[in-house]
Design a protein that fits this description.
The protein is α+β, with helices and mostly antiparallel strands. It is 32% helix and 27% strand.
């Protein structure tokens, strides 16, 4: 990266970038059709993007004989001997460009011979006049003091500006008639003022008693503010264009009142006096801060409650950007020798230089300090540095503030916490008060940034511990997709108690669980881990949803904890698209159907866990057509200090209705985007798509009779034939025989056999009432009378195993069959 790049030595790529930025700025100004400052703002772009020192717009007079100056920007025109009007038939560059319809450019040599332009400065300058087409026509005049004048890219920017001003200039207020609210008109030769009643009321004057003299109004102002006011009302010290300042007027009681004046000096022309027109408004209604002291106090208050680095950045932006009328602010932390950009305002990439977008707009945008020597020097010195418009800076900084740049090192003790960059697009004047304000704000922001950095580090540690208690990954589900999100609270550093879980169950069922333990402490997090483990264990045992939640409630009561917990448990049958929901003091699910409609499920609820020993937890049915999205959340997402849970649930339903469920991750991120974060937030989303291939199932109750194994074999043979299985009968029937025989011989009670076929995968499962799992023998002799069944099942099956079910176990085996 080059350290210093002169205006005339910029590369073609940068020129194209500058032209595109000028085009974007002009489009933004053109979009504001009603702005009375539109022409002036357009002319200011010539100073920013074309390197002009002065720019002006001339339009034909009413009689058509003159080209009169209606708006200007930059240094006073008198420095270049320019007039406020030129004859349309004369030899001036303005008239020649207007008549010929083509640009006219004059260098120092041509200007020296031109009688219409008397060059006052000792150094040379260049002048370019471009015709303005449309709405009566006119001429754009620009002056450049650079040694090489306007280059090709500068002239292209001037061409864009001449097109942008091709609309009627704001008309001057008429001498007679009603003035707009807060408006005034001052005749510069007589000092007579026309003002509305509302403006006189700001000065505390009775409209009937006002004598119309400007001296009467000036006599009511604070004496210290008179010099700045006189510089506005004296025509010799003003160029054509807008002026703005704030001043104070004395009050009968209390402190002086701050007012803001916006004025524009309009030329009088032949036989008419120049007039100053504009508005005066109450400054307290236009800005959030009345004095620089108040700005610092407000920033200190905001930083006192800012706990994260991002909160600090938002407070600095709110305190500085609008009051200073800055176009962009960047806040960056200093880590070793690198800058980590934490806040960019505005956040849109196109608002920042191409270099920033290319090298810094990553997940954690950063850059070495040595890449910007000017910034590195400011950080070493430790004091605020200010560069006005036109200063030679490296590319990484010059395009941040072409109209002015302020760099604020953020000190914290004996080190630098970071830096704040403030940039303006239009030329900005830095006063002594503004410099003092920036220095004071930098010290406050540096201390707050160090505190926030420590908080972020500790909070990240807490969040890491919290995440260790939650599932690391979610299972893959047939016919469904699930995503989860968890955000710890930013209100403190203690652990929270929100949790979630997705539990795959036999027969293509899945259990969704979400819950919240009372409080934010290590005890709450520990209890959360215990409840999550308990619910998973009870669910895997094969209990129905109400029994699972009842067991968890009894467990929590037996633990004699002072805390209670809420949870919602939903058991979904992925084959049938149906579900059962149980609530224990928790929020109900929210369903988004395929047509975009939403519904807050009317699921009957029970009390929170750990409150009543003998509590009922009723089950409520849910229907899930393919494409349905089911959302389970904790109260941290929907409850805020300003609204209750019911309003939050309705807001959640509206957000889901407006979402696109194709990407669940984006939906979850959007839900968390507006979370208040005063509490933990957990979100669990599942989209049910339906299974493409539903398995075939049949069950058989094995009676304890001598021919029980034969009956089971005949049932299995008939079932497989009805499913189209024509091969591998013997292996499948032998597995059935061994599993049923083991259940009858080694257990008591009921025995049930389940057959499941999906694709060519056959699953044989035999459930019995004994919790003891079969044991694979290590060796078998010729004289042994048992133990071979398990070895046969293992040899004939692709995989086999056991799992606990309510009151017993299930032994299963899977194999691949030909159909």
């Amino acid at each position: 990266m080059a350290n210093v790049v002169s205006e005339g030595a910029r590369e073609p790529q940068e020129r194209r970038t500058r032209t595109l930025r000028a085009e974007g700025a002009l489009k933004a100004i053109a979009a504001d059709q009603e702005s009375p400052e539109r022409v002036h703002r357009v002319l200011e772009q010539a100073l920013v993007f074309a390197g002009a020192a002065f720019a002006a717009l001339y339009t034909p007079s009413q009689d058509g004989e003159l080209l009169r100056l209606v708006e200007s920007a930059g240094v006073p025109r008198t420095l270049y001997g320019l007039r406020d009007s030129y004859p349309r038939t004369g030899r001036s560059p303005v008239a020649e460009a207007h008549r010929g319809g083509r640009p006219v450019s004059l260098g120092p040599a041509e200007l020296a011979e031109h009688v219409q332009a008397r060059r006052v400065p000792s150094r040379d300058f260049f002048l370019t006049a471009l015709p303005v087409h449309g709405d009566g026509g006119g001429c754009l005049l620009a002056v450049c003091e650079r040694p090489d004048g306007f280059d090709t890219d500068d002239r292209e920017c001037l061409h864009l500006i001449s097109e942008a001003v091709a609309f009627p200039a704001p008309a001057a207020p008429a001498e007679a008639g009603e003035l707009p609210p807060g408006a005034f008109s001052l005749a510069m030769d007589t000092g007579r003022v026309r003002a509305g009643d509302d403006l006189l009321d700001l000065f505390g004057l009775d409209p009937v008693e006002f004598d119309g003299r400007v001296e009467t109004l000036l006599g009511l102002t604070v004496p210290e503010d008179l010099p700045s006011l006189m510089s506005v009302v004296e025509a010799d010290h003003m160029s054509i264009g807008d002026r703005e300042l704030e001043f104070r007027v004395l009050q009968p009681t209390g402190p002086p009142k701050w007012l803001r004046l916006r004025g524009r000096l309009l030329p009088g022309g032949v036989g008419h006096s120049a007039r100053l027109v504009g508005t005066v408004d109450d400054a307290s209604t236009l800005r959030s801060d009345v004095t620089d002291v108040a700005r610092v106090q407000r920033l200190a208050t905001a930083l006192a409650t800012a706990v994260t680095v991002r909160d600090v950045g938002k407070a600095v932006v709110a305190a500085l950007r609008r009051p200073l009328r800055a176009d962009r602010i960047a806040l960056a932390e200093l880590e070793s020798d690198r800058l980590v950009v934490t806040v960019l305002d505005p956040p849109e990439p196109e608002s920042w230089p191409e270099l920033w977008r290319r090298e810094w707009r990553t997940e954690w945008p950063d850059a070495p300090v040595r890449a910007m020597p000017t910034l590195a020097a400011a950080l070493r010195e430790g004091r605020a540095r200010i560069w006005p418009a036109g200063s030679a800076l490296e590319r990484g900084l010059s395009e941040v503030g072409p109209g002015g740049l302020a760099v604020l090192p953020l000190p914290a003790g004996n080190r630098m916490a970071g830096a704040c960059l403030i940039g303006w697009d239009t030329p900005h004047d830095f006063g002594s008060d503004e410099r003092a304000l920036l220095t004071a704000c930098a010290g406050l922001a540096g201390q707050a940034l160090m505190r926030a950095r420590a908080f972020d580090a500790e909070h990240e540690l807490v969040g890491m511990l919290q995440r260790q208690l939650l599932p690391r990954r979610l299972p893959r589900l047939p016919g469904a997709e699930a995503v989860t999100r968890y955000l710890p609270s930013t209100a403190g550093l203690e652990l929270g108690g929100d949790w979630y879980d997705v539990i795959p169950l036999p027969d293509h069922h899945v259990a969704l669980v979400i819950g919240d333990v009372q409080g934010h402490s290590a005890g709450a997090a520990t209890l959360m881990g215990q409840m999550r483990t308990a619910l998973r264990a009870y669910a895997v045992e094969g209990h129905t949803p109400d029994v699972v939640v009842s067991h968890a409630n009894r467990l929590l009561m037996d633990m004699e904890s002072d805390l209670f917990a809420t949870c919602a448990y939903v058991d979904i049958d992925l084959e049938e698209g149906s579900a059962w929901c149980v609530r224990a003091g928790h929020l109900p699910p929210v369903l988004r159907y395929p047509d975009g409609t939403t519904e807050i499920a009317e699921a009957e609820g029970g009390p929170p866990l750990g409150v009543i020993t003998q509590a009922d937890f009723p089950m409520s049915p849910l229907r899930l057509p393919p494409g349905t999205l089911i959302a389970l959340v904790t109260d941290g997402l929907v409850e805020t200090p300003d609204s209750d849970i019911d309003e939050g649930m309705e807001r959640l339903a509206d957000q889901l209705a407006a979402s696109s469920p194709g990407d669940l991750g984006l939906v979850a991120d959007a839900l968390l985007g507006n979370a208040q974060r005063s509490d933990d937030v957990a979100v669990l989303l599942l989209r049910y798509d339906g299974m493409d291939l539903r398995p075939l199932r049949e069950s058989w109750t094995v009676w304890r009779v001598p021919q029980a194994v034969g009956h089971a074999r005949r049932f299995a043979r008939r079932t497989l034939r009805s499913w189209g299985v024509t091969e591998d009968f013997d292996a499948a029937l032998l597995v059935v025989s061994e599993l049923v025989t083991n259940a009858l011989v080694h257990t008591d009670g009921q025995v049930r056999m389940d057959l499941t076929l999906i694709n060519d995968r056959l699953r044989v499962a035999v459930a019995d009432a004994s919790p003891r799992s079969p044991v694979r023998p290590t060796s078998i002799g010729w004289e042994a009378t048992g133990g071979r069944g398990v070895l046969l099942v293992e040899a004939l099956s692709a995989t086999w195993g056991t799992l606990p079910v309510s009151g017993g176990k299930q032994v299963w085996a899977e194999m691949t069959l030909g159909r």
